[in-house]
Specification:
The protein is about 75% helix and about 0% strand. By secondary structure, the chain is mainly alpha-helical.
């Protein structure tokens, strides 16, 4: 049980003021003076001497002095006598003396008496005396009253918590800040939460809180109280203050508070400091703090150490730390063990760990387990795990369900899951929704989703968005070679974005647009990129451009590549080239190829050319 009184309680009257640097000789002299005065019957000296001895731990010496002063009517002595008796284990007798002092107006005694009643379950009496103490300006009384009211769900607790905080009570300041955070909607009621591991097994920020909306009045006030508590040595306040500053990008100050908290023994702060150092490129120092946190039982730090060793190829050490995370109650340890086993091809063990994490509610483990089952051909077993993960908020699982249902031909259900994933920002899901809406004729809805996909980095999304915008463009007048290039349209910018990401059809289209405005060099560059990546249209168009510029031999090389890939027009062009050269047999061979490849118009022309070449050869 905590002692019902502190230094402020013992020295309540203010008559005994200890100089900050008093030496032993000076203190002995003061004690002698007080003893002489007490022996002479000075009640005030008895009270102060008793308080001095009580503070020193000399209960036997303090008790007679305090009893004598109390008998003389000294209320501070009555309060301190209660403290002494409480320390001796005589709680009921202590309460009697506190009551005497409290009735006489001692705020400290009223606080101690309120605490006494609360510990015995008498909350009405506890509230009465704590309120007496708080209303007289006693900081500890205000805090204890706030704690009692908060326990009962009484909204009046906030007022007294604020009073205690304003008077410098660090725990009150911390709890007030936490309450403001919860009101802002960013955090749960718990104070021991840690982040989970990411898909790469690296772990997440261990501040024990989720991101909170920035710049609200509650945020600013919460930060103020965290600062006050942290400045007074509250290690969890320092942790949360560090997290706020880190979110805001003030990493240097965040690191200082994390360090302060970590040095005071807060494992989560040590873990957070490790992540900050890792992000700054100092992996070795990060590992030191992660190790310290992990040894203090922080599962997130153990996961981070596991990921660090896994990256270095030290799989056995990584596995040991993932198991340590699991032993610390962090389900991410099992998930990361699954990832580690899967990377090593230990499929059965990966499934085992994924299942363990999934049954514990880890949504990404459920998604990973479903993928593993699907890869093994167990579609029926995969579907419920995808569903569990998706319902728990896994965006990837929602997308994977879309793929699963699309593969079965259940396009309506697939679209619903794609839409769910797209609403959560999944780029490929947005692309699939855009394609489906285009197919259904909803061009406006398709454009909206394609913009999301393209903006998220999807090359196919950028290409399809460009085609939608391209179809709306009015026809442009023909351009002559060498004409000044006009400003690029939005659709061309999207084509170029897709082309720069290696999208072959976009590269061909960018080449065509460049050629249309007379930029031969740019057109050739994009055609060549597409052709070298395997685009038969790119190869064909590059051949046309080269032939137009007088490089028919090089053009023939690209046409041959396109024709070998199944491009009928390229085969027809080759047939014409060889016919002009007088190589009739080779021309006939390519004409036959063009007839086979088509399309219809090309096949007809190729057939006529082939017949003419055959007649020429037989003549």
């Amino acid at each position: 049980m905590d002692v019902m009184g502190d230094k402020a309680t013992l020295l309540e009257t203010g008559r005994f003021v200890q100089p900050a640097d008093r030496d032993e000789a000076g203190e002995a002299a003061e004690e002698l003076r007080l003893r002489l005065a007490a022996d002479a019957g000075d009640a005030e000296a008895m009270s102060v001497l008793g308080a001095m001895l009580l503070r020193r731990g000399d209960l036997d010496g303090a008790e007679p002095q305090l009893r004598a002063a109390t008998a003389a009517g000294d209320r501070a002595a009555a309060n301190n006598l209660g403290v002494l008796l409480h320390q001796r284990g005589y709680a009921d007798e202590a309460a009697g003396w506190w009551r005497i002092a409290a009735v006489a107006g001692s705020a400290a005694a009223a606080h101690a008496l309120g605490r006494h009643h609360r510990e015995r379950g008498d909350e009405p009496a506890a509230e009465y005396w704590l309120r007496q103490s708080a209303e007289q300006g006693h900081t500890l009384g205000a805090y204890a009253l706030a704690d009692l009211l908060e326990h009962r769900g009484d909204p009046g607790s906030r007022r007294w918590m604020r009073v205690a905080a304003e008077r410098g009570h660090r725990e009150a300041a911390y709890r007030l800040a936490r309450a403001l955070d919860r009101r802002a909607g960013g955090e749960g009621d718990g104070d021991n939460g840690v982040g989970g591991a990411g898909a790469d097994g690296s772990g997440t920020h261990p501040s024990g809180e989720n991101p909170v909306p920035e710049n609200s009045a509650d945020d600013a006030e919460a930060e103020q109280w965290y600062r006050q508590a942290a400045a007074r040595g509250h290690r969890r306040a320092a942790l949360h203050l560090g997290a706020i500053l880190e979110r805001r990008g003030e990493l240097k100050e965040a690191g200082r508070w994390y360090l302060t908290s970590a040095k005071d023994g807060e494992a989560r702060a040590a873990c957070a400091l490790g992540f900050l150092l890792r992000d700054a490129g100092d992996t070795e120092s990060a590992a030191v703090w992660w190790l310290r946190a992990a040894q203090d039982g922080d599962g997130n730090a153990a996961n981070a150490l596991g990921a660090l060793h896994a990256e270095r190829g030290q799989t056995q050490t990584a596995e040991r730390w993932y198991r340590a995370a699991m032993d610390a109650g962090d389900v991410n340890g099992a998930y990361n063990l699954g990832l580690l086993c899967a990377e090593q091809g230990r499929t059965a063990q990966a499934e085992q760990w994924y299942r363990r994490a999934a049954y514990a509610g880890h949504r990404e483990a459920a998604n990973a387990l479903a993928i593993l089952l699907l890869q093994g051909g167990d579609t029926a077993g995969a579907e419920p795990w995808f569903s569990k993960a998706a319902e728990a908020g896994s965006v990837d699982a929602a997308f994977n369900l879309g793929i699963l249902f699309a593969g079965r031909g259940e396009d309506g259900i697939a679209l619903r899951w794609y839409q769910r994933a797209a609403a959560a920002g999944h780029t490929e899901a947005a692309l699939q929704v855009g394609i489906a809406l285009l197919r259904d004729g909803d061009e406006a809805g398709a454009e909206r989703h394609l913009r999301c996909a393209a903006g998220g980095g999807s090359a196919e999304g950028a290409y399809r968005l460009a085609t939608v915008l391209d179809a709306r463009r009015p026809p442009e007048p023909a351009h002559e070679l060498g004409e000044i290039v006009h400003e690029k349209s939005e659709c061309e910018e999207w084509y170029e974005r897709a082309a720069s990401q290696g999208h072959r059809r976009a590269q061909v289209r960018v080449g065509m647009l460049a050629a249309a405005r007379g930029d031969v060099v740019e057109a050739a560059r994009w055609y060549r990129s597409a052709a070298e990546a395997g685009s038969r249209n790119g190869a064909f168009n590059l051949g046309l451009l080269l032939a137009r510029e007088g490089s028919e031999p090089e053009a023939a090389v690209w046409w041959e590549r396109a024709a070998d890939a199944g491009h009928g027009r390229a085969a027809l062009r080759l047939a014409l080239v060889y016919a002009r050269r007088g190589e009739l047999a080779e021309g006939q061979r390519w004409a036959d190829r063009a007839v086979a490849l088509g399309p219809g118009e090309v096949a007809e022309r190729a057939a006529r050319l082939r017949d003419a070449l055959r007649e020429e050869l037989s003549a």
